[in-house]
Structure formats: structure tokens, C-alpha cells
Write a structure and sequence with these properties.
alpha/beta, Elongation Factor Tu (Ef-tu), domain 3, Rossmann fold, Ubiquitin-like (UB roll), six-stranded antiparallel sheet, 9 helices, globular, disordered N terminus
Length: 356
């Protein structure tokens, strides 16, 4: 195995410092943070609608914590601007720190955009189900689909009450700009209770054929997923983003980890950034670590099976995942695997990061 330890890209090498250009109070318990992107970083921070960045938040207790925040800005609409929307989590740490401390001129360390809650084709009909802060990646997708595509875009947006609606003004503005193509339906739990399967199913039936995207609390997304199944929507047309806190530290140096005792070697063929890479793959080492150790620019963020930044598609052979907190059964049946957790089960394995 020809791994040069010094060739391993440290996460520090991927970290960037961005200056906060504006902080806007969205609701009483949420803020939008806008970042200035220096010219030299514009390419690196060009995101795909639906992606997130990972933010390093200082802590007296642990030095820092890392948290992912979806980008609400659209690369297709705004002049180059990067915005995240943060909602306070009860008894949480990072979200409250950001809501309390973020201010214009502050510098924050972040990892560049990643994630797969994205659309291959923006020129289709979309049906979005957002709950609470789950609106952030959805807003980016909505703005992008309206500008780049020609389909109908519908948003079912659930909140506790009218005061909790993030981006209400922006959504109303978009609705007035695209009256023929964009419809927003606000579901307020204070007045309407928790949405029932028939409420979600009737929206899905009304927009049959649309790509369904959902982001919000787990029970809300489960409801959308089950309703889509009940309406006969195929799994590939339902996309979900899970918001959860990282427990590891993607800002630490990316050292090689050993996830099993098996020290045999398999062969990996990997399609990545338009290249085909064939390499020896120690059976105890996650595929992502093998690629990073060789200096390949493989996508990743959490390295703990929680964020999906490193998703790749199994083309041939088989792998097991040491941990998986994000892919559901159907994703796995579709061949999706987390490279940060993937260990080879067969002597030869082919995966693709390019063709998801
Ligand atoms: C892909 C993705 C996208 C996301 N997008 C968004 C988004 O757009 N908007 C949004 O609001 N959220 C988003 N999230 C969720 C976000 O990453 C956080 O999970 C959320 O903000 C809650 O974090 P928190 O630290 O406030 O709460 P918690 O994680 O619940 O905080 C409690 C944790 O912090 C630790 N802790 C407490 N005090 C301290 C301290 N002083 N120092 C160090 N640790 C401490 C505790 O031990 C405990 O582990 C996203 C998550 C993912 C994975």
C-alpha cells in the first residue's frame, strides 16, 4: 500500500475563515447570518442549492464544536452571497451561541459546502415539505428552481405558529414574483394541529409527478415519506435532509482510522471528480480515509456517518458500513453508501462519487 502519511490533507487545510457581513433577526428565535466571500474563495464556495456548510463554534468547555447549517441563499439568484439560517434549539449549545453572539464583522471558521439534498434537474415540478428551520435548504432550492426551471413549485410549510415562520417575507415576495408557478401553503400547528396523513397525501396526489423534498423534525419527515409511499411515489422521487448535531470534529486533522481488526487488503476502483482511481484498500480502513491519505479531494464533513457529505454509489462488489445514522433502507437498496464508514466485504469494489 503506497500511502504517504504526509500527503494526507488535514481538515485544517480545508477550513476557511469567513467574515460575517450581516446578521438578520428572522423570528424571535432564529437569525440569518450572511458571509462575505473573498474573490479568491468564490469558486470554492459556489454551492449547489440544498447544500450546507459546517461551522466551527467556539466553546470554553471543549475548545469548539462543529455544526452543519444549510445554505438558504441560491447560487443562481443572489449576487455571490452565502447565507445560513439558524434556529435556537432548546437546551442546545451552538445554535444559541450563534443566535446570541453572531455579529457583523465577526470571523467564523467553516468547511466549504457539501451535501446531497440537491436536485439533478431544476426544470421539473417540485413539492417541498418543510418544518421549522427545515426551510433553509428548501428556500435555496425553491429560488433556484423558479429561476433555472419552468416547473410548478409548491411549498407545504409547517410551523408552530405564525410568529415562528422563518423567511415569511421572502416567501411572500417570491410568491408575488412567480404567481403562476409558486404556491406556498402555511400549516400552523397552533390553529390546525399536527398534519395528518390525509393532509399530506392530498397535497402529494394534487402534485403527482413532482419531485418531493422534505426537511424538518423526524416525525414530520417520516409522515411525508410514509404518505409518499401510500400514494405510490417511487423512492427515488423523495428526498430528505436530516438535521442533527455532529458529535465528532471534522475540523481535526484527518488521520487514518481503523474501524475493524481485519488487516487484509481489497482493491477499490473509485470514480471521483471525473477521474478513475484504482487503489489497494486495507480492509480495516474506511474508504474515505484511504482516498484522503492519497491526497484525493473526496467530499466529506462529519466522518461519523451522520451528514451524508461523503455518499457514493456502489457499482460493483460490496461494502459494510461501520455506522450509518443517515441513509434509510431504500437509499441502501439504491446502492448508496457512506465512504467515511465503508469497509470492503469483497476483494474488488467499485464505487462512484460522480454518478449518484
Ligand atoms: C446537513 C445538516 C444541515 C443543517 N442545517 C440546519 C439549518 O439550516 N438550521 C438549523 O437551525 N439547524 C441546522 N442543522 C442542525 C444543526 O447542525 C444543529 O444540530 C442544531 O443547531 C442544534 O445544535 P445545538 O448545538 O444548538 O444543540 P445540541 O446539539 O442539542 O446541543 C447540545 C450538545 O452540545 C453540547 N454542549 C453543551 N454545552 C456545551 C459547551 N459549552 N461546549 C461544548 N459543547 C456543549 C452538549 O454536550 C450536547 O452534546 C443542520 C444539521 C445537518 C446535519
Amino acid at each position: 500500500m503506497t500511502v504517504e502519511p504526509d500527503a494526507r490533507p488535514a481538515a485544517a487545510a480545508r477550513s476557511r475563515t469567513l467574515r460575517v457581513s450581516e446578521v438578520t433577526q428572522e423570528t424571535k428565535d432564529s437569525v440569518t447570518i450572511s458571509f462575505e466571500i473573498p474573490d479568491a474563495m468564490v469558486e470554492e464556495f459556489k454551492h449547489v442549492p440544498g447544500q450546507f456548510i459546517t461551522v466551527k463554534i467556539p466553546s470554553d468547555r471543549t475548545g469548539h464544536v462543529a455544526r452543519c447549517y444549510s445554505l438558504s441563499s441560491s447560487p443562481h439568484v443572489e449576487d455571490f452571497r452565502l447565507e445560513i439560517g439558524i434556529k435556537r434549539t432548546e437546551n442546545g449549545y451552538a445554535s444559541n451561541w450563534l443566535c446570541d453572539n453572531a455579529m457583523t464583522g465577526m470571523e467564523l471558521t467553516v468547511l466549504p459546502p457539501s451535501g446531497h439534498f440537491t436536485a439533478k434537474n431544476l426544470d421539473v415540478d417540485f413539492l417541498f415539505f418543510a418544518g421549522g428551520s427545515g426551510i433553509t435548504p428548501v428556500l435555496s432550492l425553491i429560488k433556484s428552481a423558479l429561476v433555472c426551471g419552468g416547473g410548478e413549485v409548491t411549498l407545504f410549510y409547517a410551523n408552530r405558529d405564525a410568529e415562528s415562520i422563518m423567511y415569511e417575507g421572502q416567501l411572500a415576495q417570491i410568491a408575488s414574483e412567480f404567481p403562476e408557478r409558486f404556491t406556498v401553503f402555511h400549516w400552523l400547528e397552533s390553529a390546525m394541529g399536527i398534519p395528518a396523513p390525509e393532509d399530506v397525501e392530498s397535497a402529494i396526489r394534487e402534485h403527482r409527478g413532482a419531485q418531493i423534498y422534505t426537511c424538518g423534525p423526524a416525525p414530520f419527515m417520516d409522515l411525508v415519506q410514509k404518505s409518499a409511499e401510500a400514494c405510490g411515489v417511487e423512492h427515488a422521487s423523495v428526498h430528505r435532509e436530516v438535521f442533527q448535531s455532529l458529535t465528532g470534529d471534522p475540523f481535526e486533522t484527518a488521520t487514518m482510522r481503523q474501524l475493524s481488526d481485519d488487516d487484509g487488503v481489497a482493491t477499490a476502483t473509485v470514480y471521483l471528480n471525473g477521474q478513475s482511481i484504482t487503489t489497494e484498500w486495507p480492509r480495516n480502513t474506511p474508504l474515505l480515509d484511504v482516498l484522503l491519505a492519497q491526497g484525493h479531494n473526496a467530499p466529506y464533513s462529519c466522518r461519523e456517518g451522520a451528514c451524508s457529505a461523503c455518499v457514493c454509489k456502489l457499482v460493483e462488489g460490496d461494502v459494510e458500513m461501520a455506522q450509518n445514522h443517515i441513509l434509510v433502507e431504500d437509499d441502501i437498496a439504491d446502492g448508496e453508501r457512506l465512504a467515511c464508514q465503508a469497509l470492503p466485504l469483497t476483494d474488488a469494489v467499485t464505487v462512484s462519487f460522480d454518478d449518484l
